Amino acid sequence: MQARLEDRDGRHAAVHCCEKPGWITSSVASAIEFELRFGGSPRLTIIYERSYEGFGSVVVQLLRREPDGGNAQVLNGQVLLDGLHRDTRNVTLTEVATLNVKMPAMARFPGGFNVRPYTSDLVARLTFRPRGTGSKFKLRYVGSC
């Protein structure tokens, strides 16, 4: 599943064609969600930008929606994607994070979600965590397989 997003601050409407795909946010606790469908070896891929200054992070959580669209159950596990790189290069880079969401959550690997193969009732929620005033996060792509 692929989602292309319009590059607008804090908005998260999916679009089919746009000049600059992506989602940029600088609003505290702003979040975006994606419906997921997994295959036999559940993976979640997130492409985002990392820079040397002015970037915050997002917390990735998986939620199971009730069939009636009501409350959602947050699965164990979460992942922090940091938009700030710590090396000495003054450049902005594209980072690809591929998560094996089939693994269970453990103390040494909090990113495990214990997702069963062929699951299709989950949503990925990415919640922005700023790092000081003026920080932002830029998301390019979210996909599941």
Count of spatially separate domains: 1
Radius of gyration: 15 Å
Summarize model confidence as the mean pLDDT.
82
Report the sheet with the most strands, covering strand number, pairing sense and barrel closure. 5 strands, antiparallel
CATH class: Mainly Beta
**Helix/strand class:** mainly beta
- CATH topology call: Jelly Rolls
Q: SSE string, helix = H, strand = E?
A: EEEEEEEEEE
Could you give a quick summary of the protein structure above?
The chain is mostly beta strands and 145 residues long. The chain has no helices and ten strands.
Give an overview of the whole structure.
The chain is mostly beta strands and 145 residues long. It has a single domain (2-144), classed as Jelly Rolls (Sandwich). Helix content is 0%, strand content 41%. It contains no helices and ten strands. The strands form two sheets. Strands 1, 2, 4, 8 and 10 form a five-stranded antiparallel sheet that branches. Strands 3, 5, 6, 7 and 9 form a five-stranded antiparallel sheet that branches. 25% of the residues are buried.
Set down the secondary structure blueprint:
Blueprint: E1 2-3, E2 23-25, E3 31-36, E4 43-50, E5 57-65, E6 72-74, E7 79-82, E8 93-100, E9 122-129, E10 137-144
List descriptors.
0% helix, Jelly Rolls, 145 residues, globular, mainly beta, disordered N terminus
